[in-house]
C-alpha cells in the first residue's frame, strides 16, 4: 500500500530524474567557469545548494539555475549547512507543498543566524505567488523570483546581468544520457482547483524548428532519451500553421532514439497521437493522462472540458494501439461537492481503465481559485476525503499489481535510467514504460535484455541480463 503523510499518494509512480541543462544566453559580458574568459569567478571558493520541489518543469528550471551557479564558479553541495548560497525552487500546487517550503525556510533562517548559510533565494511557483512577500518578511529571504524572471539569479550569484532570457528556447546540456525539452509553458485551462495558471501564466508554444534543433543537438552530443515537457503538452500547436502536437512528436521521434512526453490533457489528446505511440518504435509506450474524477458532475464542476465517457474512449484507443503499454493518471478526491455517488463513479472508472499507476491527491484549497470558494460552502470533511483517498489508492494498486504480474516470464529490452545502487540493481524502463529493477553494472543510457522474474505493485524485477 502506498500512502504518504502529506495527503498525496502515488500508486506505482515513476518520477523522471534530473538532468543538467545549459543556460540559453551566455552572460552579456565576461565569462567564468568553462568560458575561458580569464579572471576570478565570483563564486570561486564558495558553495551553493539547490533544492527542488514540484513537477518536472521545476526540475528543468533548477537545471538552468544550476548551470548559472556553476558558471559563477560555485561548488555544488548537498547539505544546507555546507552552503553559502541556497536556492529553494518551490511548488505551490497544494497547501502541503507550501508547508514543506515553510519548514525548509525555518531551518534556513536558523542556519543564517548561526552564520553558516549566507544567502537564501526563493524561486519557482511559490516565488510567483502573492504569499511570497509574507514569506520574504517572515524568514528574511534575500531574493524572491517567480517563474518568468529566473534569469535574475545570475546577478545574485555574481554573474553579469542578463537581459530577459527566460524563454522555453533554452538549449539543453550536451552529453547527458537523458534530457527534458520544454515545448510549451503555462496553461490556458482554468480547472476549478488549480493554481498553476496563476503562477505559470498562459500557454506559450515553442516553434517546431527550435524544438527539433535542440533535440538534434542533444542527440548529436550523446543524449539517448528525450522527454518533451509542458503542463498540457498535447495542447502544443503552431502559432501560425496547422501543425499539432502529433506532428511535433512524429518529428522528434524521427530524430531521437527514445522519446516520452508529459503531461497530457484528455481534451487535447488526439486519437492519431495515441496511434502514433504504437506505431513509432522510438516512442515509449507509456501514457500519463490525468482524469481527476470519474464523475461527470465533478468533471463539470472542475471545468475539465470532457466527460468520463470521452476519457474511456481515449483509453480504449490507447490500449488497442499499444496493447502492452502503461497508463497512468492523476485523481483528486474530496473536491467540494463530491458525493459518495461521485466517488463510486471514480472507483468504477479506475476499475474500467485498469491503470498501471496513479497519483492520488486529496483536494487542497488554493486561495484565489474557484475551488477554494466552493470549499467554504460545500467542503468534503477530511475523514471522508481520507477514506476515499485510500479506496482509490487501493483500487489502483490492485490493477497495477495484476497487470505487473502478467509481465512475469517475458523477456524485455530495458533502458538503464539509474546505474547500480547498493543492492547491486540498476533501475531501468521497458519499452512498455514499466519500471524494472535489474542486476547489472550497465551504465545509464545503455540497454540490457533480461527476463522478468517478479513483480510488485510498483515495479518489475528482472533476472541476470541475457545480453
Ligand atoms: N498540468 C497537469 C498537472 C498539473 S498539477 C494537468 O493538467 O494534468 C498535477 C496534479 O496535481 C493535477 O493533475 C491534479 O491532480 C493535482 N492538483 C492540482 N491542484 C490541486 C489541488 N488544489 N488539490 C489537490 N490536487 C491538485
Ligand atoms: Fe492546472 Fe488544469 Fe492547467 Fe492542468 S490543465 S495545469 S490541472 S489548470
Ligand atoms: Fe508545482 Fe509549479 Fe509544477 S505549482 S506542480 S512546480 S508548475
Percent in strands: 15-25%
Which superfamily, in CATH terms, is the homologous superfamily of the largest domain? tm_1862 like domain
Report the helical percentage.
25-40%
Q: Number of helical runs?
A: 13
Order the strands across the largest sheet as they lie in space.
3-2-4-5-6
- Sketch the major β-sheet: 5 strands, parallel
Give a nutshell description of this structure.
This protein has 467 residues and is an alpha/beta fold. It has helices at 56-71, 95-113, 131-139, 153-156, 196-200, 208-220, 245-255, 271-279, 296-301, 308-321, 340-353, 370-378, 382-405, and strands at 8-11, 47-52, 75-76, 85-90, 119-124, 143-144, 178-182, 184-185, 204-205, 225-229, 259-262, 286-288, 326-333, 357-362, 411-418, 426-430, 435-438, 447-455, 460-462. Strand 16 (426-430) and strand 17 form a beta hairpin.
What does this structure look like?
- The chain is of the alpha/beta class and 467 residues long.
- 33% of the residues lie in helices and 19% in strands.
- The chain has helices spanning 56-71, 95-113, 131-139, 153-156, 196-200, 208-220, 245-255, 271-279, 296-301, 308-321, 340-353, 370-378, 382-405; strands at 8-11, 47-52, 75-76, 85-90, 119-124, 143-144, 178-182, 184-185, 204-205, 225-229, 259-262, 286-288, 326-333, 357-362, 411-418, 426-430, 435-438, 447-455, 460-462.
- The strands form five sheets. It has a five-stranded parallel β-sheet with strand order 3-2-4-5-6, sandwiched between helices. The chain has a five-stranded mixed β-barrel with strand order 15-16-17-19-18. Strands 1-14-13-12 form a four-stranded mixed β-sheet, with helices on one face.
- Bound molecules: S-adenosyl-L-homocysteine, iron/sulfur cluster and FE3-S4 cluster (F3S).
- S-adenosyl-L-homocysteine binds next to strand 13.
Amino acid at each position: 500500500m502506498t500512502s504518504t503523510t502529506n495527503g498525496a499518494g502515488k500508486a506505482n509512480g515513476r518520477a523522471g530524474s534530473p538532468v543538467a541543462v545549459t543556460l540559453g544566453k551566455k552572460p552579456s559580458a565576461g565569462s567564468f567557469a568553462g568560458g575561458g574568459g580569464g579572471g576570478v569567478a565570483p563564486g570561486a571558493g564558495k558553495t551553493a545548494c539547490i533544492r527542488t520541489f514540484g513537477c518536472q518543469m521545476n526540475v528543468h528550471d533548477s537545471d538552468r539555475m544550476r548551470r548559472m551557479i556553476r558558471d559563477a564558479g560555485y561548488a555544488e553541495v548537498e547539505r544546507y549547512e555546507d552552503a553559502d548560497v541556497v536556492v529553494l525552487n518551490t511548488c505551490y500546487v497544494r497547501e502541503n507543498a507550501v508547508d514543506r517550503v515553510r519548514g525548509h525556510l525555518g531551518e534556513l533562517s536558523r542556519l543564517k543566524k548561526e552564520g553558516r548559510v549566507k544567502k537564501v533565494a526563493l524561486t519557482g511557483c511559490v516565488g510567483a505567488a502573492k504569499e511570497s512577500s509574507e514569506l520574504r518578511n517572515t524568514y528574511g529571504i534575500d531574493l524572491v523570483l517567480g517563474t518568468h524572471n529566473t534569469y535574475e539569479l545570475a546577478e545574485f550569484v555574481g554573474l553579469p546581468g542578463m537581459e530577459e532570457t527566460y524563454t522555453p528556447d533554452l538549449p539543453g546540456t550536451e552529453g547527458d544520457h537523458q534530457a527534458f525539452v520544454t515545448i510549451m509553458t503555462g496553461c490556458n485551462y482554468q480547472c476549478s482547483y488549480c493554481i498553476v495558471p496563476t503562477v505559470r501564466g498562459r500557454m506559450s508554444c515553442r516553434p517546431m524548428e527550435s524544438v527539433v534543433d535542440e533535440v538534434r543537438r542533444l542527440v548529436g552530443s550523446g543524449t539517448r532519451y528525450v522527454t518533451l515537457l509542458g503542463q498540457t503538452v498535447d495542447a502544443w500547436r503552431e502559432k501560425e500553421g496547422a501543425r499539432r502536437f502529433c506532428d511535433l512528436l512524429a518529428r522528434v521521434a524521427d530524430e531521437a532514439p527514445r522519446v516520452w512526453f508529459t503531461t497530457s490533457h484528455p481534451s487535447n489528446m488526439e486519437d492519431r497521437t495515441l496511434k502514433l505511440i504504437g506505431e513509432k518504435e522510438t516512442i515509449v509506450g507509456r501514457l500519463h493522462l490525468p482524469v481527476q474524477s470519474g464523475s461527470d458532475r465533478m468533471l463539470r464542476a472542475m471545468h475539465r472540458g470532457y466527460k468520463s465517457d470521452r476519457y474511456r474512449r481515449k483509453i480504449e484507443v490507447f490500449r488497442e494501439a499499444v496493447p502492452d503499454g502503461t497508463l497512468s493518471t492523476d485523481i483528486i478526491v474530496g473536491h467540494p461537492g463530491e458525493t459518495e455517488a461521485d466517488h463510486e463513479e471514480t472507483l468504477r472508472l479506475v476499475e474500467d481503465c485498469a491503470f498501471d499507476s496513479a497519483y492520488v491527491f486529496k483536494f487542497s484549497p488554493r486561495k484565489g481559485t474557484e475551488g477554494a470558494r466552493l470549499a467554504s460552502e460545500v467542503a468534503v470533511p477530511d475523514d471522508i476525503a481520507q477514506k476515499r483517498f485510500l479506496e482509490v489508492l487501493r483500487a489502483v494498486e490492485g490493477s497495477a499489481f495484476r497487470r505487473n504480474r502478467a509481465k512475469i516470464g517475458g523477456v524485455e529490452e530495458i533502458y538503464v535510467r539509474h546505474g547500480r545502487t547498493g543492492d547491486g540493481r540498476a533501475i531501468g524502463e521497458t519499452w512498455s514504460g514499466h519500471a524494472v529493477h535489474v542486476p547489472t553494472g550497465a551504465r545509464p543510457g545503455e540497454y540490457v535484455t533480461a527476463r522478468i522474474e517478479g513483480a510488485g505493485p510498483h515495479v518489475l524485477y528482472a533476472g541476470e541480463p541475457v545480453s
